Fold this sequence. Notes:
- This protein is mostly beta strands.
- 14% of the residues lie in helices and 57% in strands.
- It is built from 4 helices and 21 strands.
- Strands 2-3-7-9-11-12-13-19-20-21 form a 10-stranded antiparallel barrel.
- β12 (249-267) and β13 (273-296) form a beta hairpin.
- 25% of the residues are buried.
Amino acid sequence: MIRKTFICCLLLSLHIAAYGQAPSDSTTTEASKHTLMTRIHQLQEYLDTKAKAKVDPRYIEVPDKPWRVMLRYKENAVDVDYSQSLDFPATNEQSDWNLCFEPPIASSIGFWVGYRGTGFSYSKSLTKNAGRYYSLSSTGAKYGFNFRLRRFNTQDGKFCANDYTDGKPDGEPFTTDVEMPSPVWIRSVYVNGYYVFNGRRYSQAAAYNQSVIQRRSAGSFLLGATWYQSSFDYSDIRNALFMIIGHGIYRAKVHQANLGVGYGYNWVPLRGLVVNAMAMPTVSLYNRVKVYKYETNYDLSDEEPIDNYGAWDKQTRTWANGKTHKPILMMSDEDSQFDYWEIDPEVNHSMFRLNLDLRLGIAYNWSNYFIGAQVQYNNFNYKTDNCRVNIYDAYARLSLGVRL
């Protein structure tokens, strides 16, 4: 034991003599920090070299300063149209109606911080009752990625109806503002990715996040893929009237996978200024709609109401006269005896739904500063046998930034 201790002390003394002092924790920490910073610097040099190698410098300039900080102001608008068709075979009558929901425009202000084409953002809503909205994006020389999430509820809507007899219009269309007894919840998730065929000379990022600068006018075909899902929900029983005239539907969920080919063009009228326009129609290769329904003891019977139904029996789900449904015209607030229950949901699959992605962007660069404005419009639609839903989603954004 003494021999081992002596040998250890001798080795330590030789180490101190050779290097001047014993190694300390602070020295080790400084060395680790230096190594980490070296690795980060090497990674940055690799990314910068790779970014510049993938583009034609005559058309696209990759700024030497890779970091960007932007202040952003954004307005997002959503319009949801929910349509139903009601048929009355006994009288050869038909009624088409539409509910339109337009929540308040969601205004927000925030900042974006990123390195080259990738970064993160934070924004604060300036509008009350506009719902929640999240987004994330990343771009490169030949690719782009966008993610958007919007969730909101509203009770304000517009009701439009057209009546037909023997296939001919019966009077003038009827339009009125309505207030739903209980809020309608609408949620949408949008994920989009695209590939740029002429990525060496054309860049979407030049107009939309200013990670590069377009020097000459150029265009390119784009291949795009989109995943979209949304839900439309007014399941609160206080909305029973709309459920009945809506064939019992109280919730619908859709999942879509879309593929499309579009074209984008960057116009450079003068140095530092770029104007972009892009259009991409897409076709649904996968379209799944799941519809949830209530069954009720009232229906849209076109028979003349005769008040001899008596009491409702919840066990047998029949009225006293043996009928299972009562015409909705006989529904009263005092003694409606309204009853409802869930039935199995319906799942429908269809293909070849046409959706649309339109974008317009403008940006101006001077020194290490830039300013940009962008507009994007998307249309998604889906339907079942009796209902049809169209969602129009658009935003306008203004940004001011600096390169660091």
